[in-house]
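Minutes, structural biology subgroup

Action item carried over from last meeting: produce the structure token record for Part of AAA domain-containing protein (Chitinophaga arvensicola). EB confirmed the sequence was re-checked against the source entry. Recorded below for completeness.
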Amino acid sequence: MPPPDNPGNVLSSWIALEVLSPQTFTDPRDLVSGSYSSIVPIGVTPLPWEGEEGPVKPNFRAYYQVILDTIYFDKAIHSLLEIYADKRPERPGVKGEAIMATVIVDDKGRPCREPAGNISSFGWGLKPALDRDLKRLSEWSAAEKKWSEELHKLLYVKDKAGEVLPLTAEKLVAARQFLHEALAIPASFVKHKSFAIRTYQPVRSGAPEPLLLNSFFLGDLQTAIRLFKQQSANNNLQRYLGVLPPPFRTPLLKDSVALEQLIAPERIPPARWPGPGRHSLVLLQQAAVNAALGEVKKGDIIAVNGPPGTGKTTLLRDMMAGLITARAEAMCTFKDPATAFKESGEKILINSATLRLHKLDARLKGFEMLIASSNNKAVENVSAELPGLQAIAADAEELRYFTALSDELLGKESWGLVAAVLGNAQNRNKFREKFWWDREVGMSTYLAEAAGTEQFVNNGVDPNERHQPRIIATAHAPAGEVAARANWKAARADFEEKLNESRERLAALERIRQKVLGLSALVKKAARAKAALQEAKRQMKEAAGGWNALNTAFQQAEEAVLQARIAVAQHESLRPGFWARLFNTSSVRRWKSEREVKLLQLQLAEKKQAAAANSFHHLQRLIMEYDINHNKLEKRSKHAAANLKQAEREIEKLRTTSGMQLIDDHFFKLPHGEQHLSSPWCDPETQRLRDNVFIAAMKVHKAFIDAAAKPLKHNLGALMHFFSNGNMTDIKKAALLADLWSSLFLIVPGISTTFASVERMFRDLPLDSLGWLLIDEAGQALPQAAVGALMRTRHAVVVGDPMQIPPVVTLPEALTQGICRSLKTDPNRFNAPVASAQTLADAATCYYAEFEGRSGTRIAGMPLLVHRRCNDPMFSISNAIAYENLMVTAKRPGNSPIRDCLGASAWIQVTGTASDKWCLEEGYAVLELLGRLKQSAIPPELYIVTPFKIVADSLRTLIWDAGILNGWVDDPGKWPQERIGTVHTVQGREAEAVILVLGATMEDQDGARQWAGDPPNLLNVAVTRAKEVLYVIGNRNRWKTAGVFHDLATRVK
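Output recorded by EB:
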């Protein structure tokens, strides 16, 4: 891994980039939210707060948020483009106005916040950027403090009695003049436009939140810099920025040993989500769940690379099931759930009621699931899919959890309150009204009933006509605390029984796995025994051959001794007589000489005989030993072979009869597709046990909530007050915010938000307050967008795909890279669009994948490779251009009325002329296809997409003007906005068909075509929106040489 950049420099670079990324509006009405706000003009006398106040709803008060001039955003950006080149043929559109500053006043015109004014970072940063003083952009925090204080002195004036004076027209003019001079914005960029937003707030809530003028992320980025300076940044953030390296790095597609260990039964969670059809997760989905729930330590990041249609939501569901079950297990450690809440002594007085704030036991913290994305649609989709009735098996009828409330929040039939959309103030208010205050389905009503206060709703005018609230009837609220504790005891016992059953089954599967792993050892043992037996046989054969030779040699040696002895005896018989020996005659001397020779020959023969005897007897002993050893080895070999055969029979029986996918040496020799379509270890019986654990875990949550209704009602009431009031100014009360949020997560396990709302929604929430951050569509997210969420969470699972649409960047590339370099930050690692939340997570994850592509090696997070959305040719195109043909299709054939009408996927050749990139003849081709569908009364369940904004705008106009949608779709005005757009607008969506309109048909537009075709991201997203059929409209001859469009031209005829 490359050495880490200085985190302070990286964060400073991101601050500088965000300084130039303000909030904009095109119409003042865009700034108004809710029915209690309206636009009022400024610049005519009297000022709104100086005239007669109209009727005001009781207990409400008027406030005015005054806008002090605005900046033409498009003019400012174009001026930057003149200095900093942008080579992109297709730039993100810029329009509208950026507010220069605001001040909030009450119904008397008195500033009611300190500091009184809020200043735009863009207004301040524009001059340094135009002056090429890019490093100074990182100094926004100090500049904001300085100029806000100056503006405050001008606006916040008190009389001699200490009363704040109301603003006058003269003061507003002076404030605008001060801003123009202080910020030194070119006069041509300033739109002299002052107006106010009038808001009626409940008296108890105080002044409204200031309009957000600046980037959503500036505050958290400044906090993160301070944390690093204090050396107190949490592990999540340190991993993300590369300060802490991952504990290990394992290339999962290349390391079968690591993969086998990761999907072992001992690592499979005891519960799973009973999805539609109760299908099992496939190999790498299960590996990702196991890694996230079993491998992740505090501060570790797991990145998941999820190409289109590979089951990212399915993965998320099983992760949620695992975490909900883990919290249910923690809940079961309490005999009385109410004891999990301890009074803190802090109170909130609301009218005449008192809310007592409780601390939540640490055992129940750390399970909170914050689902975040930069993509609003992704957030809405996840929060709509998880509670939806279609998200669970049709026969999972026991799985119901506060359905009356969930139905209301979702706007359709659901199975339970498992997730909800929060985020911006409008969403939070909508949630609060339904979740808490709704008399029919609200949780305030339910908890009051569960705590022992009977609840009714009046039917009409007659107070005697009343009925039980729907949530109490459908959720079977207990009749008081005694009943709640009895329900808790039963739910707890049922859960523990089912949990034990599941764990015992997984333990049995682990024993099977150990037997499977042992099979390899048995194979090796049998092979060693067989080899040893063969060696023994060889030795015996060799010894047998040696025995014959030695036996012959021994007999020959014995014969030689015998002959030598005979020769000596015969020679002794020829010994000369006494006198000859006395006189040592010549005959005696000759006899003696011959005798010595005979004796020497006998001695030599005896030595040879002794040596032959030794060798022969030694060999005899060896043969006896070999024989004994051979018999032992033969028995050992037969035993090893028998054990191996028995184990093979048992494992083969499991393989063929149990429905279980064993993971063994044989498995990793299977074809790539067969491996990845498999579901490891868990047979249907085991999966049903795991389903039952999750169902029981949800019942435990329901029973726990019933038994702890009273303290929960206080904590949630306080949090809802925080939602409406916007802040918790008391330090001691603010310290309990984490407990209040965790109380909400006890009831709603998953809460989703865009990154843009994290800072405001979780203000004052300490580091690591929440358990889990689950990022969706991370490839689309700016790297700096995730900082605030990472600071507030302990674990992070980041899901996305760098091969889809990258983050959208408005500023020119030369400017963003210049900012990074001026602050000593590597733009290739930390600057969008090259960098995203996904690429930083991919570098921080423990498990990763390598894709060997046309332009080198690409590193991604844990890969999901089984695709279930698209038919061919869409699947094959995506697989070839973006995933090196490693994806595996599991798409089931689907019906397609559009294909039946228009035919198979096709390229419709059009060779018209173009105005800019718009080709009218291509538009007519689209109308022709739509006309055929309308004539056949087939609903247009399709998207019309294009690489270029001008083509999308022109298509909308053409189709509007043609009137073809009239009498065909429910809302002809809305359909073009939702169904026609650039490819960037449709990521995360899918339809039966896609019409891809290419544009850029002229010969001299090769640069635009190459931009669209290199890299593959844009085409990859375009084709994978279509589930069944794809129609391409454009000039094939011009486009077939534009990068990956060559693959499109090859596969679509």
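Discussion: The longest strand covers residues 60-72.
Next step: EB to file the record with the rest of the batch.
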